[in-house]
Design a protein that fits this description.
The chain is of the alpha/beta class. The chain contains 12 helices and 9 strands. It is elongated. Bound molecules: guanosine-5'-diphosphate.
């Protein structure tokens, strides 16, 4: 990033750090870069540069973003109110949130002529779920999202970082419950996952609920647990001589044991912020009672600028580097030669082109394979259909032959019948002709008395025969009608 594009504090920090290297190192540097040192003959005016920077930054205003991580009801809101001596109107959170949610609220504060845009990010529902394994994820996602927003702004062609509202988290106040035992798994897991992304300042909340000796032991235990588990917490910088001593001393006091309260209680003839109990008063700003003042001094008065600087140069830089590497950017090529953005772009384009061609080839092969499979299936279906058709054709052929045979048989029968019919007709005609002459002979015979007697005898015989048949039929049925009335 170009120096002119950086927010003020970074330029200012660059100025501060640039003035810090030892004269020996500076001389070597100048020699290496072939820079000559000259003495000026009179006043020029660039000595006012620090004042110019201060004036510009005062005009611009400052921005500071605090993330408060801790269980619901541990005293986060109260401590933030106490730190900035104002009521931020935070609504009380319930213990029934199904998951952890991050809630950011930005406030404009002014002290003398210095304006501060303060963003407080609260972890709503933290520690309230039965399964707390992934409670840190929403926090990590939130921090990354702020880095991503800044990176996107940086990568824009038309950047406006000068008046960009920087939402990157500068410090994470991690609230530890005053159990006197040890860190909870949730605390360790969360801090471990956050330490490479944000400056963590651990604080023991509600320190008035733990005795002085227990607190000392608890502090030592916590620090050793953090070290054992490789959790990197923020260390107040000791590279600036003006603040090195105080910062080094404060590093020894970590984690700060704090008490928060906005209540004013009369102590002597002064009104002080305190928590009043039946047995006495805990004064928030009394260094014998808790570390609240130390925290406020370190966080706001001494190291606010360093926290911003660390966020930019350490945590954001790490995020940016990983992201750019993921995108294919690199500073040096295979032979350790510097690679320009253009070269990286070309290499990436080439790589993507190759990737696309490979994918296309894969898809083509897959397509051909699918077509082949489909073809085989269709061919099989066609073969089955053909076999079915042949089978049906054979059945049809057999049926047709059978029908043909029957037709022929019927035809023969019909011809035979016709022949019989015609011979019958001839016979009937002949009979008819013959019966014509017989009728006349009958008439003559009926007149003959002997013939008439013969006829009568025949009738009697016929009647007897008919009666006998009738009797036989009735006897078969078992119901002879003969003899019935
Ligand atoms: P948050 O949910 O973490 O924001 O917790 P709050 O700030 O709303 O505090 C929850 C309760 O704890 C309130 O009743 C506060 O008065 C109380 N509280 C806050 N700070 C302290 C403290 O330092 N000591 C004690 N004993 N109680 C505190």
């Amino acid at each position: 990033m170009e120096e002119a594009q950086r927010p003020f504090f970074h330029s200012h920090m660059a100025f501060r750090t640039a003035s810090m290297p030892s004269p020996l190192c500076e001389a070597e540097e100048r020699k290496r870069e072939n820079i000559r040192s000259l003495t000026m003959c009179g006043h020029v005016g660039f000595e006012s540069l620090p004042d110019q920077l201060v004036n510009r930054s005062i005009q611009q205003g400052f921005c500071f973003n605090i993330l408060c991580v801790g269980e619901t009801g541990i005293g986060k809101s109260t401590l933030i109110n106490t730190l900035f001596n104002t009521n931020f109107e935070e609504h009380e959170a319930s213990h029934f949130c199904p998951n952890v949610r991050l809630k950011a609220q930005t406030y404009e504060l002014q002290e003398s002529n210095v304006r501060l845009k303060l963003t407080i990010v609260n972890t709503v529902g933290f520690g309230d779920q039965i399964n707390k394994e992934e409670s840190y994820l929403p926090i990590v996602d939130y921090i990354n999202a702020q880095f991503e927003a800044y990176l996107q702004e940086e990568l824009k062609i038309k950047r406006s970082l000068f008046n960009y509202h920087d939402s990157r988290i500068h410090v994470c106040l991690y609230f530890i419950a005053p159990t006197g035992h040890s860190l909870k798994t949730l605390d360790l897991l969360t801090m471990k996952n956050l330490d490479s992304k944000v400056n963590i300042i651990p604080v023991i909340a509600k320190a008035d609920t733990i005795s002085k000796s227990e607190l000392q032991k608890f502090k030592i235990k916590l620090m050793s647990e953090l070290v054992c588990n490789g959790v990197q917490i923020y260390q107040f910088p000791t590279d600036d001589d003006t603040i090195a001593k105080i910062n080094a001393a404060m590093n020894e006091h970590l984690p700060f044991a704090v008490v928060g309260s906005m209540d004013e209680v009369k102590v002597g003839n002064k009104m002080v912020k305190a928590r009043q109990y039946p047995w006495g008063i805990v004064q928030v700003e009394n260094e014998n009672h808790c570390d609240f003042v130390k925290l406020r001094e370190m966080l706001i008065c001494t190291n606010m600028e360093d926290l911003q600087e660390q966020t930019h140069t350490r945590h954001y830089e790490l995020y940016r580097r990983c992201k750019l590497e993921e995108m294919g950017f690199t500073d040096v090529g295979p032979e350790n030669k510097p690679v320009s953005v253009q070269e990286t772009y070309e290499a990436k384009r080439h790589e993507l082109h190759g990737e696309r061609q490979r994918k296309e080839e894969e898809m083509k092969q897959m397509f051909v394979q699918r077509v082949k499979e489909k073809e085989a299936i269709l061919k099989e279906a066609e073969r089955e259909l053909h076999a079915k058709f042949e089978h049906l054709k054979r059945i049809h052929q057999e049926e047709r032959l059978k029908l043909e045979e029957r037709r022929r048989a019927l035809e023969e029968e019909r011809i035979l019948f016709s022949k019989r019919k015609s011979s019958c007709d001839i016979f009937l005609n002949q009979s008819y002709m013959a019966s014509g002459s017989n009728i006349k002979k009958d008439k003559d015979r009926k007149k003959d008395p002997g013939y008439r007697f013969e006829l009568l005898c025949f009738d009697v015989r016929t009647c007897e025969t008919n009666d006998g048949r009738k009797d036989a039929e009735e006897g078969r049925e078992g119901h002879s009608t003969r003899g019935r009335p």
